[in-house]
Amino acid sequence: MKIVDARVIVCSPGRNFVTLRLETDTGLTGVGDATMNGRELAVAAYLEHHVCPLLVGRDASRIEDTWQYLYKGAYWRGGPVGMTAIAAVDMALWDIKGKAAGMPVYDLLGGRSRDRVLVYGHANGETIPEVLEWVGRYVGDGYRAVRVQCGIPGIASTYGVSSDKRYYEPADVDAPTENTWSSERYLDFVPSVIEAVRDEYGFDVHLLHDVHHRLRPIEAAQLGKRLEPFRLFWLEDAIPAELQEGFRIIRRHTTTPLAVGEVLPTIWDFRTLIVEQLIDYVRTSVQRAGGISHLRKIAALAEVHHVRLGCHGATDLSPVTMAAALNVDLAVPNFGIQEFMPHTDETYEVFPRSYDYRDGHLDLAGEPGLGVDIDEEAAARYPYRPAYLPVNRLEDGTMHSW
Ligand code: GCO
Ligand code: MG
Fold first, then answer.
1. Which residues of 156-169 are buried (b: 16+ CB within 10 A; e: fewer)?
2. 116: CA distance to ligand 2 center in Å?
3. Does 386 map to a domain?
4. What is the pLDDT of residues 159-169, one digit of tens each?
């Protein structure tokens, strides 16, 4: 079965997505997600100029060999652009293999290890009463796990807090927005937010919180310690992910579970974190970490060290990544939780999907392949628009992680 066409489709049904579509001489097609928020065209160009020409004529059934060919063959290995491009190819090839076998990809990965996939939703608000209201709505919608983010008094805008509560979208059209940050104000305030949610809703719902790479290790250690009584499911990206040794400091001081890795693309980026058991959840995604072939190796290393998978699932990962993630989530033994932010109706129009939310969980209908596709005619109605993630400065103007 040979690849006869490899096409990159860039569209913006509410937000930008980059999708790879492969076609084989048998007529079977496969899709992969290559979206990198705020830097979309870099991955599109990498695919168009350096990957697609190499794919035409290759045997579509050789998934692992193609992965190794693109990873080792580039010489300049790793990195988010290259790994996202490889991920798209890998997803599309698993999609084709599943269709050729007449099986959902999770069956090719060993079959279901569970009946459905636990997800968490995003509750946020400018103030504690607004946060409580939104946690209540998620609980009312059946969610068993909710991420909680709140505006910080004295800071004009805060990560994770948006006016559109259902479809959080941090990317801005044209130029990056400048935000201001104060770790001191944040640390003074955020424990009271989580405490208020526990007071109102008790301990029956899992609570999660995302620091979004903003603290120093000792600050993160202090926060983890102060949040212990509220038993978070996880504290996410407490410090920048590249500072792996920093997690030793956090771990030494707190038993609050730690999640990290939505920006980490390879198993080598996770090695120290997993092997030294410095984290509890791996947060990367099929799309960031080189596709299903590579993510399942990360998951297997994590399994050995009793670390669980909690894949990134923000709206900048297309429904193609969500479908691929669900196939992995259903199959691996060490699944923890899946992030889920629903896409807009326009996005679902472009990407017909076979997964659905019900009662705090997502599940796939069991269609052959990944269980998702792209409608190219619909995609053509939503042309690309330049968009950037915000940037962040401290109150004195110093650049800080966003
Ligand atoms: C999350 C993430 C996202 C990122 C976004 C960047 O935990 O969902 O932190 O909200 O900010 O994916 O593109
Ligand atoms: Mg995050």
1. ebbbbbbeebebbb
2. 23
3. no
4. 889 877 777 78
